[in-house]
Specification:
395 residues; alpha/beta; Rossmann fold; Tyrosyl-Transfer RNA Synthetase; Structural Genomics Hypothetical 15.5 Kd Protein In mrcA-pckA Intergenic Region, Chain A; six-stranded mixed β-sheet; 18 helices; elongated; RNA-binding
Length: 395
RNA sequence: GGGCGGGUAGCGAAGUGGUCAACCGCGGCAGACUGUAAAUCUGCUCUCUCCGAGUUCGGGGGUUCGAAUCCCUCCCCGCCCA
């Protein structure tokens, strides 16, 4: 991993770039911090951006540190606005972190990770220590953060706990002696507090801050996130990853190439050129989809996912790995059958589906909501474009 | 502590006694089309034994032939003053 790629690929900003260059040139094994929230979520390729950057540092021989904010999570994150987040127990945090690391290992070299919990130091602090810490920053400094600034201006509330968050996060950097902190651009402010605190505590190193761009989700507008359901999960099936990629807007292709794959920068430029000259963006989206599947599964899965996609959506053929279900009864009305098997969530929905012509049995469209289905022989049920199920009776 | 405003389907947001299962937008789903699960267009979007019926509009109680709409009470949220 060359330093140029390290400093440029998928990087939004570096503060201070010159300092970081110097550190890299010194040949020292740098300590790279990435803070994570142990609230337990499925990782998606948006998280993948920063994880890839971390992996690059690992490959360049540096020490990757995952800082788990277990202490802060136990207090509860105040940014969730109205809902107070439930405090997490130690066991929950442990489990969440195991899941996290399992998923992140698809990108990171898990054997070389240093994993730290911030309860390690926060738990031991006395009130005097806390006062000493908060005395290092002023309210007006903290209020510089854009969302605080806006809320303050608009007379919305800012909880005291929120004020403490950046300070606590910064203190983590002091304790870890981080040389570099990685994070999304939205984390810039908090990470800079780390620099200030390291100076205030006269740390032997002042971390440089590297931000990575926020990846838009499948809608092409909002940040990729689970709650908006516009994400591609790292652990999703090849079919899902492929299909979801194909549903992204064309404008996102290049950005995804840059941030979510390892395709060399030159090749990306060339593809961009081709697209600008009128080549069908779909072809590049296919390339992207295959890359992503290959990354999180393997090459063979990528080939297969492409074939399946062509068959299912372009040729409208039936996929070949359809789940099967065995039922006790053999005599069903369509409505009951597709509801019972979970293909639709209610009978009303089932009726709508049939009325809209979205239900097929053995390839034949069901025309009437009163139709019966005999399962004494296996039947292939299709609801909409994507839901398939083979149904038969129990032996 | 005082004053004011507000809590409506996944979200946003109308509606202030009957024609309200509730306008509209987003999201979601289906169909058509296609270069894709893109874009566009059309339709659907609480549930049920879909003829019709049953439960909904922060919780509970009440007034009324009839309430999301009026009254009481409780809970929650926001703003202002202290």
């Amino acid at each position: 991993m060359d330093n140029k790629t390290l400093l440029e690929r998928g990087v939004a900003d570096i503060i201070v770039r010159k300092e970081l260059e110097k550190k890299l040139e010194s040949g020292k094994k740098l300590r790279i911090k990435l803070g994570i929230d142990p609230t337990g979520s499925d990782l998606h390729i948006g998280h993948g951006v920063v994880l890839k950057k971390m992996r690059q540092f690992q490959d360049a021989g540096h020490q990757a540190i995952l800082l788990i904010g277990d202490y802060t999570a136990r207090i509860g994150d105040p940014t969730g606005k109205s809902e107070t987040r439930v405090m997490l127990t130690e066991e929950e945090i442990k489990k969440n972190m195991k899941d996290y690391i399992d998923q992140a290992s698809k990108i990171l070299d898990a054997d070389k990770l240093e994993i730290r919990y911030n309860s390690e130091w926060f738990e031991k602090m006395t009130m005097a220590d806390v006062l000493n810490l908060v005395a290092k920053k002023t309210i007006s400094q903290i209020l510089q953060r854009e969302d605080f600034k806006n809320r303050f201006k608009n007379e919305q509330d800012i909880s005291t706990a929120e004020i403490l968050y950046p300070i606590m996060q910064g203190y983590d950097s002091v304790m870890l002696e981080a040389d570099v902190e990685l994070g999304g651009t939205d984390q810039l402010f908090n990470m800079l507090v780390g620099r200030d605190l390291q100076k205030a505590y006269e740390s032997k190193t002042i971390q440089d801050v590297m931000t990575v761009p926020i990846l838009e989700g499948l809608d092409g507008v909002e940040k990729m996130s689970k709650s908006l359901n516009n994400y591609i999960g790292l652990t999703e099936s090849a079919t899902e990853i492929f299909g979801k990629t194909m549903s992204t807007p064309d404008e996102l292709i290049i950005k995804y190439f840059e941030l979510a794959t390892d395709i060399p920068a030159g090749e990306i430029e060339a593809d961009k050129e081709l697209m600008a000259n009128g080549e069908n963006p779909r072809n590049f989206k296919v390339k992207l989809a295959k890359k992503l599947v290959a990354l999180y599964h393997d090459e063979a899965a990528a080939e297969k996912a492409e074939q399946d996609f062509i068959n299912q959506f372009q040729k409208k053929e039936v996929p070949d790995d359809i789940p099967e279900k065995k039922l006790k009864e053999s005599n069903w009305s369509v409505i009951d059958l597709i509801t019972e098997t979970g293909l639709t969530s209610s009978k009303s929905e089932a009726r709508r589906m049939v009325e809209q012509g979205g239900v097929k049995v053995d390839g034949v469209k069901i025309a009437d909501i009163g139709d019966k289905i005999d399962l004494s022989e296996e039947k292939l049920i299709q609801v909409g474009k994507r839901k398939f199920l083979k149904c038969s009776t129990q032996d």
